[in-house]
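Dear colleagues,

For the upcoming journal club I promised to circulate an example of a predicted protein-ligand complex. I picked one with C2G because it came up in last month's discussion. The inputs are reproduced below in full, followed by the predicted structure.
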Amino acid sequence: MKKIITYGTYDLLHYGHINLLRRAKALGDYLIVALSTDEFNWNEKQKKCYFSYEKRKSLLEAIRYVDLVIPEESWEQKRSDIKEFKVDTFVIGDDWKGKFDDLKDLCEVVYLPRTPEISTTQIKTDLKMTDKTGGNDD
Ligand code: C2G
């Protein structure tokens, strides 16, 4: 069984995330997603998530491509995760290209092209615009 692992925040889940997860799963048989905790996001990525870790985890667990969700609590845990879960391939979007090449002594490292026109930041910006009536949908 070929095991794949990927890492991310996955807040305001969107089709760019799904594109990544679908392609990651296609590289093997079992996909693990290490999901950034609220603390990791705030302390290490200065990201304040709209959805809590538990809600983001439940959304990911509902995706057919995802087999296991574990917490990402530090940058350094990748090596021990790869060993613990006997991972064959580390996958992440190419916005991280080159950043995780140090893992190549443990497993294959694959950077997949991002879906260009969508991001959680873009969604938050767009949502700040109200509709014609100036109101907001319920
Ligand atoms: N992604 C994508 N296309 C987009 C947006 C995101 O392919 N339009 C990918 C990212 O490249 C990443 C995954 O979806 O592989 C999750 O994206 P984020 O939640 O933004 O993850 P990030 O904050 O980059 O966290 O230790 C690694 C970090 O935890 C990665």
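Two points we might discuss: Helices lie at 15-25, 38-45, 53-61, 77-84, 120-127. The longest strand covers residues 30-36.

See you all on Thursday,
B. R.
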